[in-house]
Amino acid sequence: MVAGLLVVSTAVIATLTTAQKAQSTDLTTPSFLVATRDLRDPPFQHAVILMIPSTEPPLLAGVIINSPAEMRVRDMFTQARPLKRQQETMYLGGPVEPDEPSVIFRASSAPASATRIFDDTYVATGHDAIVEVLKDPRIADLRVILGKAQWLRDQLYSEVMRGAWYVVPAKSDLVFSDPKDLWSTLVQGGDLQEAEAGQAPALNLPYGRIDATKCRHPLSSN
């Protein structure tokens, strides 16, 4: 247990150091969106969102990784092997498609049905793909998540620029760490980054600007 805490602490320190030195805010690289203290809109208050590859570009997508639900994985996936205590609980990933599950996991190699997020961290959606991950005894770190958050590029740009989110480099150890203190740890690093920068940083986003009136996909309520 102590060794695990040391690993997570090291990852936190490395992440915050990177954030403090960042000259720009870049969502084209693996990133967390960390709700600032001013963001009061449920379900995003105190949220840490892992940005994931969008299945509907030019929309941007992410999943909240620190909001455990009351439902257990076995309530939806009876085929799941016995999981660690922290993995038995499903997580609420966001207000878009709240009944649609996905699984975030770490693996040295992944099934063809999964999409790489960064390094050894992958995401899979769809019942059969998730069951395949849940049955694989080689996969030690995973989170089953219901729903997601989703934005138009200009919408997210506006939210970050008006102070709703910090953008912090994503680390695998943090994705699968204890969610209880994740927000408070990362938001402290974001506060420090903002104080050192003295102004809002430039924001790099994937995809170009688009006409929001032409997009009919559901968006987050924020």
Q: Explain this structure to me?
A:
By secondary structure, this protein is of the alpha+beta class. It has a single domain (2-195), classed as VC0467-like, CATH 3.40.1740. Helices cover 30% and strands 29% of the residues. It is built from 7 helices and 12 strands. Strands 2, 3, 4, 5, 6, 7, 8, 9, 10 and 11 form a 10-stranded mixed sheet that branches. A hairpin with a 7-residue loop joins β3 (48-52) and β4 (60-64). Residues 1-24 and 208-222 have low confidence and may be disordered.
SSE inventory with pairings:
Elements: H1 2-21, E1 24-26, E2 31-35, E3 48-52, E4 60-64, E5 68-72, H2 73-76, H3 85-88, E6 89-92, E7 96-106, E8 115-118, E9 121-125, H4 127-135, E10 142-151, H5 153-161, E11 165-169, H6 172-175, H7 182-197, E12 202-204
Parallel strand pairs: 1-12, 6-10
Antiparallel strand pairs: 2-3, 2-11, 3-4, 4-10, 5-6, 7-9, 7-10, 8-9
Helix pairs in contact: 1-7
